[in-house]
Amino acid sequence: MDIQFINRLRIDAKNPGSWSGIQAIEGKDFIQSVSPVDGRQIGSVSVTDKASYENLVGAAEHAASVWRNVPAPKRGDVVRQIGDELRRRKEDLGRLVSYEMGKSLQEGLGEVQEMIDICDFAVGQSRQLYGLSMHSERPMHRMYEQWHPLGIVGVISAFNFPVAVWSWNAALAWICGNAVIWKGSEKTPLCAVACQKIAAEIFEKNQYPSALSTVITGAADVGKWMCQDKRIALVSATGSTRMGRSVGMEVAGRFGKVLLELGGNNAIIITPSARLKQVLPAIVFGSIGTAGQRCTSTRRLIIHEDIYDEVSSVLVKAYSQLRIGDPLDETNHMGPLIDTDAVVHYMSAIEMVKSQGGKMLIEGGLLQGPGFESACYVSPSIAEVPSQLPIVCSETFAPLLYLMKYKDLQEALQLQNEVPQGLSSAIMTESMREAELFLSCAGSDCGIANVNIGTSGAEIGGAFGGEKETGGGRESGSDAWKNYMRRQTSTISYSDKLTLAQGISFEI
Known about the structure:
This protein is α/β, with parallel strands linked by helices. The chain has 14 helices and 24 strands.
């Protein structure tokens, strides 16, 4: 395999994991980055210790105090330049994402494209940080609201999107006038190092403090420092529901702001009028893309009883044609799971399905032999379940798809909504009545609701996020920028008299 892209991204055998802009702090302990593609060690990254963390936060504080005074459109221009540099490095960075995380090359390139797109979006947003103007009840008074930078934004991202989630937060946080401290996943640390070098050098080139982009590396304890740190105004965390619950409690304990993007358990409702030629690719990509390790992966199919046999038969046939192997080989449909622990969890989930009454239509398992030496490759599974079993109500981060029947749309919606998660959902129908009901307040309870497209994927411009145990946060588009600023309401009097609100009289 040609891995020259690693050298072009300036990734070394040993890499600092603590970065204050262009300045690196060396560490003593190291995390090994091992590719799930071939089991080879790509490189190592040092772990951030507490003393280094304190130095990094102090530098970020100073950077934020300078950056907040820069006009927002000028901040946007710097982000534009970061996007331009990502364009130049798209191929190499996409290959690194694919090699270190295990997703297909097209998905790796697509993830980098998301970074470019959010930079483009942020440039426009930098000229639209609007507040409202309001009429006062008091004569000769004017009211308005404005938005100010928070200071430091902390970002905790997960392995499955090792670069895009950071960019969603960072691009908007930067144009809003904040510094960003990023703790990437300890499973994909080299992606964070590569991105840091790109962003920090752009800030330095424009003669702004490069500590506006800061990276820390480590396990949960390093993330906990951020959550407990009053200097970090907002913690944006992406990961499991368990992780999000811990982050939310820690940050709430100090009355900080939190933005949570947690697990999904996403369903597609397939109605009798659905076009199977349209449905099939949506299901297959949604369920096996990134080896089922997307928060928006399709986990459940809720199929009308009249077409259940046809859909399940077509789906089983499609699965038999999947090609699994090296994700950098574009002829393959699915690559590996992130590591061997993920394989263990997957196999355990299959056994739980069977023990709880599910029937395996396709029982996946560990793949062995030439090309599968990393022990991270599995074949996908399809399970027929009689009802919403306990295992179905929890998120399995693997290519495990559940099939269940429904009689009428109300029953389908109930099945769709009765899981604890509420991220993405979809309905496949040619009926306007069914589509509109699904999109209504009585329909899907998820943050994302699609008609005639699958659950997987996000489009820059729309607010991304979900409800219930998904955390309630929103990133990327719409008015998500408001998360990274503080609102201030101001009243100005141009009267020569002091007028109190509600007609109160106060004489002294």
